[in-house]
Design a protein that fits this description.
mainly alpha, three-stranded mixed sheet, two-stranded antiparallel sheet, 15 helices
C-alpha cells in the first residue's frame, strides 16, 4: 500500500542519529542517574505535563522549534523523557483509565521522543530526511516508554492510529519536518483534548500549507499527508457531522474556515467532487528557527 511506503519514509528518518549517539532507550539508566534530578521520578501525569508544557513554551516559536534553546536544556529534556519509561497506560494503568488521558499521553510521548532525537543529533543537521541512511530511527531505534521497549513506529501505528481511529492525530504528531503540521507549543491535556485537536486542525488548514485552491483550474493541492493517510482522513471526525464530502477532503470540510471553504465551493462544486486533487511534495527540512 502507498501508506506503508510513505510511512517507511517517515519511520526511517533518524535511526543513525540514535545509534551513533547511544540514545536508544533499551539499556537506559534510571532517570535520576541520567540527570541527577530525582524529583521528576515522583511526578504524577499532571506534574509531568506541567514540566513538559514549560519546556515547549520556552522552545516553540510559532511553526518552528528553537532547538538551540532545547539543547541548552538537554538535561531537563532527557529527564522528562526518562519519566516516560516507568509511566503510562500499561506501566501505571490507574492513571490512564480515560481514553483522552491515554491519547494525550501517547501524543506527548511521541513528540518528546522526536525532540530528543533531534537535540541529540549533530547541531549541523538541516534536513531530517537526509540526516540518516534509509534504516530508520522511527523503526529501528528502541525507546523505553510505558514500561516497554518501543519504536516510534509502534507508538504511531500500534498505540495510536488503530486504537483511537481519529484523523486528528496527524495534526498532533510532529516529525520535525517543515511540512509536518506545526508542533503545538503546549502539552496536550486530557481535559478538553478534543478541543485542542480541533484547534490544531483549524490552525493547520488556515496556514495555507494543508490545502491550496486554484479556482480557475479547478484544482486543489493538498499536503502529501492526505495521500499517505487517505483512509484516515476519509473517516468521520469524532464529534463532527459527516457532511456531504467524502474521501480525504472530508477532513478539510470539517475544519476549513470561510475563505478556504468559499474557494473550495467555487472550484469543486457543492459536494467538492468537481475538482482535481494534487499533492505538494513533502519538505523534510528541519523545522528549526534557524
Amino acid at each position: 500500500m502507498y501508506v506503508v511506503s510513505a510511512m517507511h519514509k517517515r519511520l526511517t528518518i533518524f535511526a543513525a542519529l540514535c545509534f551513533s549517539l547511544g540514545t536508544s532507550g533499551a539499556g537506559a539508566q534510571p532517570l535520576a542517574a541520567q540527570t541527577g534530578d530525582a524529583s521528576l521520578e515522583s511526578l504524577d501525569d499532571a506534574g509531568w505535563r506541567a514540566r513538559y508544557d514549560a519546556l515547549l513554551r520556552a522552545s516553540v516559536r510559532g511553526e518552528r522549534v528553537d532547538y538551540g534553546a532545547l539543547r541548552a536544556r538537554r538535561g531537563e529534556l532527557v529527564a522528562l523523557h526518562g519519566w516516560l519509561a516507568t509511566h503510562g497506560p500499561t506501566a501505571t494503568p490507574t492513571a490512564y483509565t480515560a481514553r483522552d488521558a491515554r491519547l494525550a499521553y501517547w501524543i506527548n510521548a511521541y513528540n518528546l521522543t522526536v525532540l530528543r532525537g533531534v537535540v541529540e543529533a549533530p547541531a549541523s543537521m538541516r534536513n531530517v530526511m537526509e540526516s540518516a541512511p534509509d534504516s530508520g530511527f522511527f523503526r529501528a531505534a528502541r525507546w523505553r516508554v510505558d514500561g516497554r521497549t518501543l519504536s516510534l513506529d509502534a507508538i504511531e501505528n500500534v498505540q495510536v492510529r488503530p486504537v483511537f481511529r481519529d484523523p486528528r492525530v496527524h495534526v498532533a504528531l510532529n516529525c520535525a519536518a517543515r511540512s509536518c503540521p506545526p508542533l503545538r507549543g503546549r502539552a496536550y491535556e486530557p481535559a478538553g483534548l478534543g478541543a485542542q485537536l480541533d484547534a490544531q486542525a483549524r490552525r493547520w488548514l488556515a496556514s495555507g500549507r494543508a490545502a491550496r485552491v486554484d479556482e480557475a483550474a479547478r484544482r486543489v493541492t493538498l499536503s502529501q499527508l492526505f495521500a499517505w493517510f487517505a483512509e484516515d482522513f476519509s473517516a468521520v471526525v469524532p464529534g463532527r457531522p459527516a457532511g456531504p464530502v467524502t474521501g480525504p477532503l472530508r477532513f478539510v470540510y470539517a475544519y476549513a474556515e470561510a475563505p478556504l471553504r468559499q474557494q473550495l465551493d467555487a472550484a469543486c462544486g457543492p459536494a467538492w467532487t468537481a475538482c482535481t486533487l494534487d499533492h505538494t511534495p513533502y519538505d523534510w527540512a528541519l523545522n528549526d528557527t534557524r
